[in-house]
């Protein structure tokens, strides 16, 4: 089978646990691109901290970001599609977070906002550093006129488990997903990596059987099941592996490169 599009999650998939893109994985993706496969990074990150990896590899095209809420062009940084959040529904969520000591951020396509960027705890500051993100101060809610892409809560696993259980009972007008052990994301109910990938593929005349997707977490399941070949990393939860066609090596063992060599470069 010839795969025309390779959809790749970033953290826990493309990058190792040190948040590095290894040389062999980079060379493998460049080689696959030269053979005609389009590389599309599909991340919970925003475009601003996803596009640099495409630039690093010398690749153009598109990135699907904010878990599918925003699709942007690499070279022009133009937002070609966006699922915007209903802002009114976020007010009780923000109140809950502030009253219960849950850190959160508000994301536009290219901006990330927090209550007090200058007073962030070391753990939170390090998290943003690892994700190449620079938090800005959240303005007055009435002044937030730019479309919102994603709301993210961040904290220890036990806290996020508790928050997820509680919010699940609220009948929220959002799509809620875990994009990592420490993150809960709220988005437009139609937003997902799978939906955005389908929209992009349709615009290019690419059918699911011509798509390979590789991911490692619950927010990747929609794209893994949409693609003709869905591959989970060995570091994935069992539910993600069960939703995939097969499992490759872990992100620390360059599983992305191994899968691409097996299904694309060796063909």
TrEMBL record:
The chain's coiled-coil residues are none
Task: Give the domain of life.
Answer: Bacteria
Q: Known SUPFAM superfamilies for this protein?
A: HAD-like
Pfam families per UniProt? Hydrolase_3 (PF08282)
Q: Sorted alphabetically, which InterPro entries does this protein's record hold?
A: Cof, HAD-like_sf, HAD-SF_hydro_IIB, HAD_sf
Any Gene Ontology CC annotation = cytosol
The UniProt GO MF terms for this protein read: magnesium ion binding; phosphatase activity
Q: What is this protein called?
A: Cof subfamily of IIB subfamily of haloacid dehalogenase superfamily/HAD-superfamily hydrolase, subfamily IIB
Q: Which organism is it from?
A: Paenibacillus polysaccharolyticus
